[in-house]
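A reminder from the course coordinator: this example appears on the midterm review sheet, so study it carefully.

Given structure:
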């Protein structure tokens, strides 16, 4: 469980954390000298019935909102701190807006510095104003606990309220894919590079190999600590420090993400539901530059909404184009801040972290559920399908839930490592049949269409094509043979004119005997589609192709082969000149004929000539 503080500068967040945990989270000399929190601070807090929670103490100054965002993402429970003597201030409002945009599920409000206020009416006024600010936020019904870090008043009540809120929250799934955004990296003498962060999902064990994204470096986890104690594994929603072997601190900066599964990828394009705050100073246009905060990562971005921009208070589907790659998952929340003036203007929820192409259109609201996201992703992927291993990331669900979702989702088809839309598979079948029909129309004398060419023309994943071909063959629609595919009820046939021309060609080849004319010469002499007819007659056994441009009458070719066999003595090596004498043809015909005999194993070629082959 992670508890994150929020609130205006100097409202006593760090003092309250120190009073609750005994840990001073202002560890930097500059923080102690200036009396303000600059960097994130961390402390363990024991909550009755809920175990030990990790407390993330964030800066309250407006100049450090980006640091606050790095600490606030991934928290389960918010501890909003408002000073009783000042009440609601600018960063109070901004932090509440950020907590809402990040989807923080619950929280508790601490009204601090109550020892400085004696007027009960003033306290009531502050609380009333605070309730107005919290209206519509996750903290709308949160308990407000008057406290004093100096006197200790209200601390027990605050602990009890935090424990009750923590017990009401569902636990995160330890069996999910591991992911931990990095918020600090440093070097420890004798240990090496150490990174810290909140484990967003899954768990990581000592000696595990982690990937660092972006960059895709790998490292071994040589040591693990949570809440200052060495452990064998870090659980989800825990603060963790990992000692990494083989990396320098600069290799794992704030904004990097540690993962273990190959399903995670960094991306520069997100599809998301984006909302602009009602008090945003201006609409969000496609060319408007903003800063996007997701996890501990901050990068420049453009929000592209179909049909125009995004007006204050409006929520729409959009493409978010990023300057730098981030590691995201469906369901992740992000915050958008304007560059000038610097302010939080909106945020959103990732609906697809890995859209298939840069110009992918925004999704309709149907993509708000895992089943809707699955249906839309499969429809968009069409014949290419979606890798099953990507589904936990693209759908935003634990890996163990993918099988259940696929079982209940209608119209899905699993083949190998990918998942397809059944409609897309049927479309591939229709296109395959149409491709074969077109092949028969264009080459009516051929025995079929090249199966390899058909696969390439369909532009679908190989396993889907094979599944489609097998289904159509089983249904009696197609027949495959010798690398060709044809319609089951189709066969090449000659019309009367083609039959007469084919006979003339066979007669011409038979008359030419051992030195037949080429295909080009036959076409010039007889006209018509000579090559398809010759291939047709070859399948009938009437002619034989010896080289690409030359066919022989079957009887004449067998006579040549017989003359060659009769004249060669087994074991003796014959040169081309000797073989020419045996068969009685010129060199122009001899060499292609001998290569044909080599292919049929009538002869066998060696370095110094040819011998009788085993064929």
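Designed residues:
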């Amino acid at each position: 469980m992670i508890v994150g503080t929020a609130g205006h500068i100097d409202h006593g967040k760090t003092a309250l954390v120190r009073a609750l945990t005994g840990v001073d989270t202002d560890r930097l000399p500059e923080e102690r000298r200036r009396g303000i929190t600059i960097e994130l601070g961390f402390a363990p807090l024991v909550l009755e019935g809920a175990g030990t929670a990790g407390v993330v103490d964030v800066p309250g100054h407006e100049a450090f909102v980006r640091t606050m965002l790095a600490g606030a993402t991934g928290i389960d429970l918010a501890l909003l701190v408002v000073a009783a003597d000042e009440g609601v201030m600018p960063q109070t409002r901004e932090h509440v807006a950020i907590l809402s945009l990040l989807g923080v599920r619950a929280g508790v409000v601490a009204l601090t510095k109550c020892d400085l206020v004696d007027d009960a009416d003033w306290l009531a006024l502050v609380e009333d104003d605070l309730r107005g600010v919290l209206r519509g936020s996750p903290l709308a019904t949160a308990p407000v606990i008057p406290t004093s870090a100096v006197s200790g008043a209200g601390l027990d009540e605050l602990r009890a309220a935090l424990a009750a809120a923590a017990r009401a929250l569902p636990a995160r799934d330890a069996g999910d894919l591991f992911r931990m955004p990095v918020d600090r990296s440093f070097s420890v003498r004798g240990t090496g590079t150490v990174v810290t962060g909140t484990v967003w999902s899954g768990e990581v064990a000592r000696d595990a190999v982690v990937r660092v994204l972006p960059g895709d470096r790998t490292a071994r986890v040589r040591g693990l600590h949570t809440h200052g104690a060495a452990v064998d594994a870090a659980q989800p929603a825990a603060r963790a420090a990992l000692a990494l072997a083989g990396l320098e601190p600069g290799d794992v900066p704030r904004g990097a993400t540690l993962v273990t599964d190959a399903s995670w990828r960094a991306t520069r394009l997100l599809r998301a539901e984006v909302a602009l705050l009602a008090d945003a100073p201006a609409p969000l246009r496609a060319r408007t530059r903003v800063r996007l905060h997701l996890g501990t990562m901050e990068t420049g971005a453009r929000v592209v909404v179909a049909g125009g921009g995004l007006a204050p208070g409006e929520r729409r589907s959009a493409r978010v184009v990023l300057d730098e790659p981030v590691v995201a998952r469906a369901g992740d929340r992000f915050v958008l801040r304007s560059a000038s003036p610097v302010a939080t203007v909106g945020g959103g929820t990732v609906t697809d972290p890995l859209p298939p192409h840069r110009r992918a259109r925004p999704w309709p609201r149907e993509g708000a559920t895992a089943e809707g996201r699955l249906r839309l992703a499969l429809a968009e992927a069409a014949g290419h399908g979606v890798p099953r291993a990507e589904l936990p990331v693209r759908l935003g669900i634990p890996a163990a839930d993918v099988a259940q979702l696929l079982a209940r989702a209608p119209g899905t088809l699993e083949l190998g490592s990918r998942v397809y839309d059944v409609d897309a598979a049927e479309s591939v079948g229709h296109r395959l049949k149409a491709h074969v029909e077109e092949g028969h129309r264009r080459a009516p004398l051929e025995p079929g269409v090249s199966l390899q060419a058909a696969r390439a023309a369909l532009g679908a994943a190989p396993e889907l094509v094979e599944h489609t071909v097998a289904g159509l063959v089983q249904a009696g629609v197609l027949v495959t043979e010798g690398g060709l595919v044809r319609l089951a009820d189709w066969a090449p046939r000659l019309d009367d004119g083609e039959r007469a021309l084919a006979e003339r060609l066979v007669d011409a080849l038979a008359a030419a005997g051992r030195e037949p004319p080429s295909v080009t010469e036959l076409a010039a002499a007889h006209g018509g589609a000579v090559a398809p007819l010759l291939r047709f007659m070859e399948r009938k056994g009437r002619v034989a192709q010896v080289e690409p441009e030359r066919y022989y009458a079957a009887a004449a070719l067998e006579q040549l082969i017989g003359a060659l066999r009769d004249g060669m003595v087994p074991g003796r090596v014959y040169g081309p000149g000797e073989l020419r004498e045996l068969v009685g043809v010129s060199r122009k015909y001899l060499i292609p004929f001998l290569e044909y005999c080599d292919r049929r194993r009538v002869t066998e070629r060696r370095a110094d000539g040819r011998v009788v082959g085993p064929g």
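The first strand starts at residue 2 and ends at 6. The two ends are 78 Å apart (CA to CA).
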